[in-house]
C-alpha cells in the first residue's frame, strides 16, 4: 500500500486534514490537486506535512518556461515529495524546471522533489486526441513521444495511464518513475476516465505509484475501501 497515493479531491481543508489523520496509516502519501489547492492554498500542504505525511502536488504546471520554472521553485520550497508539469510544455520548459529546482536545492540545502511530466490525461480518448486536439496518432504513441522528451529533459518520470505503463517501463528503464492515475478497483465505476486500469494491473504493468481518489472517498467507509484495494494489490491477486 506504500504505492498508493490518495487523492484529496475535496474542497474543504478541514475535511481533507481529517482524512489525512484517519487514513495516513493505510496509504503511501496524499495528492493535493487543483481543487483543494485553489481552496486552501499552500497552507494545506504544510498542514499535511505537520501531520507526518508526504505530498504529491498535482498542479500540472503548463505555461512558458520561465513561469513554469518559477512555479517549480515555489513547489520545491513547500517541501513536497513530488510535483508535475505538462510534458507538452516542451523540452525547453522541462529543462528549465529541472535546472531551476536543482540549483535551488543546492543553494538552500533543501530536499530535491521528484519531477514528473504529465503525458496524456487519462480522460482523453483517441477520438478526442484526433478530432479535437489534432494529434493524429494513438494515445500510446503520443505517450511514448512525450515520455522520451521528459527523459531527455532530465525529469525523474512521468504521469501516465496504466495502459501505457508497460511500454514506458520497457522503453525507459527501471529508474524512470511511473505514476498512474485513472486507477479504479474492480468494484468501482470509471466516472469521467477513459483509459482506466485496476490497481493490480497498474502495478503489474510497472507503475511505481497509483493514484486513487473518488472510489475511496465515496465509499461508505474509506477504511473498508482501502482494505479492499489492499486485497487487490496482494501478490496472490496480482
Query: Termini distance?
Result: 14 Å
**What strand line-up does the widest sheet have?**
1-2-3-4-5-6-7-8
Shape: globular
User: What is the CATH superfamily of the domain at 119-238?
Assistant: Aldolase class I
What is the chains' assembly state? single chain
In round numbers, the mean pLDDT is 94
In what range is the share of β-strand residues? 15-25%
CATH architecture of the domain at 119-238: Alpha-Beta Barrel
CATH class of the domain at 119-238, please?
Answer: Alpha Beta
Number of helices, where a helix is a run of at least 4 consecutive DSSP H or I residues? 11
Percent of residues in helical segments? 40-55%
CATH topology of the domain at 119-238: TIM Barrel
Largest sheet: 8 strands, parallel, barrel
Secondary structure layout plus pairing:
Blueprint: E1 4-7, H1 13-23, E2 29-33, H2 34-40, H3 42-50, E3 55-61, H4 65-77, E4 82-86, H5 91-108, E5 114-118, H6 126-131, H7 139-153, E6 157-159, H8 162-172, E7 177-180, H9 199-204, E8 209-212, H10 214-217, H11 222-233
Parallel strand pairs: 1-2, 1-8, 2-3, 3-4, 4-5, 5-6, 6-7, 7-8
Helix pairs in contact: 4-5, 5-7, 7-8
